[in-house]
Hints:
The chain has 2 domains: 2-80, Winged helix-like DNA-binding domain superfamily/Winged helix DNA-binding domain (Arc Repressor Mutant, subunit A, Orthogonal Bundle); 83-141. 70% of the residues lie in helices and 8% in strands. It is built from 7 helices and 3 strands, in the order ααβααββααα. It is globular. The mean pLDDT is 86.
Amino acid sequence: MKKKASLLEKLGMSPVAARVYLYFFYSAEYSATFDELQNYFKVSKSAISNALKYLETLEMINSGTKDGQRKRYFTINIDGIINSDSAIKKIVLMKTLFKQIEADRKELISNDDKVAEIISFYDLFESEMGSMLAKWKESRNNL
């Protein structure tokens, strides 16, 4: 699992968050409790808590209770991975961030095309994402 986790770390995920996220894919029901995670990884409660908060913020996992139990279960959020609304929302947020950076930089530096290039990438990504996901869903329906 460590080798796979290192791929997620290269994308900016903390080592604990990467390992916790992958753990869900190898668990029987794609879920685990806080205690199960802490016992398995043998790290502090704070490390597990921070990893779970991070993954929930990115909509990579969900949490909730089962059958009236008090324990919270954390589960892979498949919709967060392949949902077009969620993906497009993230793209729009990133594009908005870079547009703000571009506006700030224009006050400091003229003729800076690097941020504009990033924005044009997100523009294209946003415009193509909807049709890409529609094609993918159609291919899944044809199986």
